[in-house]
């Protein structure tokens, strides 16, 4: 179906034509007419399906055709779980705003708050934001959403997994216009929290499911290699990178420590790599992503912090050095390649520690997975050996002489940051000494002295 058949404004069709967008994808064909009609929407589609335009286009179309609810409040707000995804959405929104008299702004955590306040004082009509920072501006009263027309939640399941439910409810309560439209997109509609918050925020939504998250990616070749130990994994990785004809590669690890260690090892092997992990500040993250997008580095090693929101068409290979703990994360990792109609390869290295995660992925994909092998590097370990391992001896619980009240206090203090914990112990100790001294004074004054008795 052509975009012009969806009833979009001619100015939007002109922008689509400028970027050579002609045919609508499945999610766009189904979501755009529903959104233009003003109905709430709860949709699911696989990564790389074009869902961003599925909510950007109807939001802009309605703004062009209808009168604003408020002169100063934004007309549309798009929420995304990560800074990377928010930037990607903002880029697509800006491309569709060409030739229109609308201003948009990007509100992200980790950026200068006062600069964002200044941007909001210019009353932008469209805002792309992460939930935490947008909620901060609502609390600071630098933003009001009373006249908001369209609220979009992109990757709602990810936002809920990251603990943004309170912020989403705060934003929902602030955008209280009775005719507000809400468009919610999620990787899956089976997420319990997604359905709960949809029941709170959406009014009789139309449900659409296109290419569910456990569907096999047709443009991606998936391979699995059995590994005996860490050295075997590294040898396999080195061989794969030597033999593969890749443009760019994303390698996923389990922890930040693994990310830094593997990046150092790759550079020692003359394989130019850069690490992206959660302990970097926003400036460092921006620099790394800019270098990767400009092909300064061909290999990006990262944790799941970047498994969502990355949209780089030149990524030809994704390698799971460690299998993800959650099955859906596997699909999202793999979805970083084979984008925009390109072919991609997804390679997973499965060691003894990854076996349980691998079996969950196999069940999730609903297919029997066979292992590939490279000459001289075939894995030998068997799953039966894992089942026959002797179980670890359980430690006996320590005998605690403290009272229940003291145990509860200790557990509460342990959960607090060390610096705060130290001061709480000091205060508690000083109060204990004070109470003892008061008791001592009381004991002296309660009884007459020997001189008084005589």
Automatic annotation (TrEMBL):
Residue stretches making up the DEAD-box RNA helicase Q domain: 1-29
GO molecular function annotation: ATP binding; hydrolase activity; nucleic acid binding; RNA helicase activity
Nucleotide-binding keyword on record: yes
One Gene Ontology cellular component: cytosol
Swiss-Prot/TrEMBL keywords: ATP-binding, Helicase, Hydrolase, Nucleotide-binding
Domain of life per record: Bacteria
Domain Helicase ATP-binding stretches: 32-207
Ranges of residues in domain Helicase C-terminal: 236-385
Short motif (Q motif): ranges: 1-29
Cited InterPro entries: DEAD/DEAH_box_helicase_dom, DEAD/DEAH_RhlB, DEAD_box_RNA_helicase, Helicase_ATP-bd, Helicase_C-like, P-loop_NTPase, RNA-helicase_DEAD-box_CS, RNA_helicase_DEAD_Q_motif
SUPFAM superfamilies, per the entry: P-loop containing nucleoside triphosphate hydrolases (SSF52540)
Keyword Acetylation: no
Similarity comment: Belongs to the DEAD box helicase family.
Protein name: ATP-dependent RNA helicase VCA0061
């Amino acid at each position: 179906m052509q975009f012009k058949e969806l009833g979009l404004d001619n100015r939007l069709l002109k922008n689509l034509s400028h970027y050579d967008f002609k045919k609508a994808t499945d999610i766009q064909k189904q979501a755009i007419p529903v959104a233009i009609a003003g109905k709430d929407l709860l949709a699911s589609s696989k990564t790389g399906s074009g869902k961003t335009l599925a909510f950007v286009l109807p939001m802009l179309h309605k703004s062009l055709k209808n009168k604003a609810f408020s002169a100063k409040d934004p007309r549309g707000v798009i929420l995304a779980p990560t800074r990377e995804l928010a930037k990607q959405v903002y880029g697509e929104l800006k491309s569709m705003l060409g030739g229109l008299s609308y201003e948009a702004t990007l509100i992200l955590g980790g950026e200068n708050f006062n600069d964002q306040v200044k941007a909001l004082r210019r009353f932008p009509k469209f805002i792309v934001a992460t939930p935490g920072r947008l909620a901060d501006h609502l609390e600071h009263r630098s933003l009001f959403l009373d006249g908001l027309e369209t609220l979009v939640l992109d990757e709602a399941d990810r936002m809920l997994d990251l603990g943004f439910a309170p912020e989403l409810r705060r934003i929902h309560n602030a955008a209280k216009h009775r005719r507000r439209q809400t468009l919610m997109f999620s990787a899956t509609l089976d997420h319990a929290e997604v359905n709960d918050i949809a029941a709170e925020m959406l009014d009789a939504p139309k449900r659409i499911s296109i290419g569910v998250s456990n569907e096999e990616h047709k443009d991606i070749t998936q391979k699995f290699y059995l590994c005996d130990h860490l050295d075997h994994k590294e040898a396999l990785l080195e061989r794969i990178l030597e033999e593969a004809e890749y443009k760019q590669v994303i390698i996923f690890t389990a922890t930040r420590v693994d990310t830094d260690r593997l990046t150092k090892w790759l550079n020692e092997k003359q394989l130019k790599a850069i690490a992206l992990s959660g302990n970097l500040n926003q400036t460092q993250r921006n620099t790394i992503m800019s270098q990767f997008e400009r092909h300064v580095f061909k290999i990006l090693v990262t944790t799941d912090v970047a498994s969502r929101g990355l949209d780089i068409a030149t990524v030809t290979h994704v390698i799971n050095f460690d299998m993800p703990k959650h099955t859906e994360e596997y699909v999202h990792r793999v979805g970083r390649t084979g984008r925009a109609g390109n072919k991609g390869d997804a390679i997973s290295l499965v060691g003894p520690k990854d076996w349980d995660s691998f079996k969950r992925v196999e069940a999730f994909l609903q297919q029997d997975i066979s292992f590939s092998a490279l000459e001289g590097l075939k894995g030998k370990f068997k799953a039966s050996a894992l089942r026959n391992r002797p179980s670890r001896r359980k430690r006996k619980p320590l005998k605690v002489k403290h009272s229940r009240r003291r145990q509860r206090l200790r557990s509460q203090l342990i959960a607090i940051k060390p610096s705060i914990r130290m001061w709480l112990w000091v205060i508690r100790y000083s109060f204990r000494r004070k109470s003892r001294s008061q008791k001592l004074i009381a004991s002296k004054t309660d009884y007459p002295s020997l001189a008084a008795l005589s």
